[in-house]
Amino acid sequence: MPATDVRQQLLRLFREAGGQHVSGARLSRELGISRAAVWKQIELLRARGYRIEAERSRGYRLLGGPDRVTPEEIRSRLGESLVGRRVVCFERTDSTNLQALRLAEQGAEEGTVLIAEAQDAGKGRLGRSWLSPPGVNLYTSIILRPEIPPWDAPQMTFLAAMAVVRAVEEVCALSPRVKWPNDLLLGGRKVAGLLSELSADMDRVRAVVLGIGLNVNMSPEQIPSTLRYPATSLAIEGGRNYSRIDLACAICRHLDALYRLYRERGFEPVRLAWEANCDLIGRRVEVSCGEGTLRGRVRGIDGDGALLLDGPGGGVERILAGDVRPLGTDPGEQATKEH
User: Fold this and answer.
1) What pLDDT was estimated at residue 222?
2) Domains plus CATH for the chain?
3) Which of 15-19, 58-62, 186-190 has the lowest mean pLDDT?
4) Cα gap 319→292, rounded to integer Å
5) Binding-site residues for biotin, please?
6) Whether the Cβ atoms of residue 88 and residue 71 lie closer than 8 Å to each other
7) What is the DSSP letter of 119?
8) Burial of residue 234, with CB atoms counted within 10 A of its CB: 0-12 exposed, 13-18 middle, 19 or more buried
9) Pick from 240, 274, 242, 68: which is nearest to 163 by CA?
10) pLDDT by residue (tens digit) across 43-65?
11) Distance of CA 204 to the CA centre of its chain
12) Residues marked as binding?
């Protein structure tokens, strides 16, 4: 068994023990290695920041670990999950999306997850940058290979958004709301952004890379006042810091479950879940898009992920890309274009 897998199994056994001691003999037997090899792997875990107690005649006990996202930590918690079957971690990289696209082109297996402590060229939508300070947030990209045509690929962004919503609800007891096309908000301020990128032939997807940037433990001082859209973090909204490891694992689990649902039943369950978590349904908005601005009342999203606005004469305006801003509450306004 590779050393990385041994450490994953060690962490799994410690967690299954629920804070109790595990004997060296049992660890040796379960892992199929000598007790001296067990000691060596425990020392390596300690060097990575894990607090492991050793007590004569009782064995070893896990007291705690670092808030650093490591392959061993993630894999030890995910079991047979497709998402996270392989985890690659960087101390620093240009962009997890760029790295994931490179790995996807090289044949990386579906479910590969890339996570960085910091990014030098974090990517946002429409060529914008994503602020990526070290050690406080979660920057991750996931490689999926759905058997869908390229024109269905935008659906995957909404699937990723719901995975993050459910992970934050589970770990933080906070309730982020989704904002079309790829943001998550808390208290009306941006807490996460998503960027899906595609590798495809004319008629089939080779790989979709789901990029997720989640502001976890950023302080108010770390958020620039010059951002286009007001930002926040889970720590600011919740009043305490949260485990990035817990959040990374929860995102993987929820994304895995949603992806399985998507492959079984298509986009409709994901679409309905996304709409149920969107505060703009039924509200008037202004959408800035290539040909100008469009105002109207949000009806929802369609099967392609396009935003639907009630249009003049009872018709529906379908918007594929743009920036959305909520407006007032005039009950009589239908969609109108301004150039």
Assistant:
1) 82
2) 3-64 (1.10.10.10), 71-276 (3.30.930.10), 284-338 (2.30.30.100)
3) 15-19
4) 12
5) 95-97, 119, 190
6) yes
7) B
8) buried
9) 274
10) 988 887 788 999 988 999 988 77
11) 24
12) 95-97, 119, 190
